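Appendix B, record 7
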Amino acid sequence: MEKKAEKNQQPQKTSQGRQFWISWAVTALLVAVLVSVLYWQPILARELDEINGGQNSIDIAPAADVSSEALENMPHFEIEEQQAAYLLRNPETHTIAPTRPRSEPIEYMVMEGDAVFSIAKKYNITPETLLWSNYETLKDDPHSLRPEQVLIIPPTDGILYEWQEGDELETVASGFKTSADNILNWSGNRLDFTNPEIEPGEMVMIPGGEREFQRWASPPVAAVGRAGVYSSIAGGCDVPAGGAVGGGWFTWPTVNRYLSGNDYWSGHLAIDIAAGMGAAIYAADHGVVVFAGWYANYGNMIMIDHQTGFHTVYAHLNNINVYCGNSVYQGQLIGNAGSTGNSTGPHLHFEIRYLGAYVNPWEYLP
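Structure tokens (predicted):
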């Protein structure tokens, strides 16, 4: 049995040895071919160059040594015209710089048609801030704007304050209902935290500061019958009891139902409704006219007592079509829009008061 197994193994060994020598022969042949190619390639290239007169050769030399003749002998490649569609991008010469918060006040010249509310909105500050920081010019009166006035626009909400002799940081901060840290930490003030020295006459920003308004002259309400408020108005007229009584709800006194100027806010207890020069002005509800004439900053003004506790005021009129004591009815023409009194352009200054107190017209108009 052992002899028979040995006979079976001999053919297998013979076959493995044959495969080994064949693989070595193939490897040797490949190496020989590679060496032959490496040896003969430069020789064949030189012979081909001689046959072609040197046209296929490229001499590599420093850029400074390349002659015009050598450049002429360099191969020329024809570039086929580009047929595929492509995207053309034009350079953008204008870039948008990021908007950075201001730390310094700037000046603004008032233009025709401006209002405290619109200027404040343009510079992203409150109207109160604009009035507080321009008291010497506006005297807290939003209707005292005049074209070509120069206003100071603070960099943030609060009060731009001129430092006075004897002022102290804590005292000033307390007087404007804020903290000393708010003043110290405002970068535009450039104060030394350890020794904040401020010279008299310096303008200091008081972020978040506020103060009471010095109210501008506004007419007191006059009453007839059961309105329950003051009985007379300077320059007005005494009106006997009786006459038209309001229904308790209001309509718009103009065709337009949008603003042109100041909205209702703490420094302007009315709304300025868009109305061109001569536009019709209507009574907002039934009532009795208790004032019709000129009144200080209001210019030509009409006041109506609706005998329900409500009064309405129509100011800056170009002309007045009613008289004291007239009963008027909702939607009746009472005058025409203008720009009399303290006004920078035609509009209707419209107020609603209840028991003598200003109320927001937006809460009563449809």
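Remarks on this record: Residues 217-366 form a domain with the Glucose Permease (Domain IIA) fold (CATH 2.70.70.10). Residues 57-64, 86-98, 226-232 have pLDDT under 50 and may be disordered.
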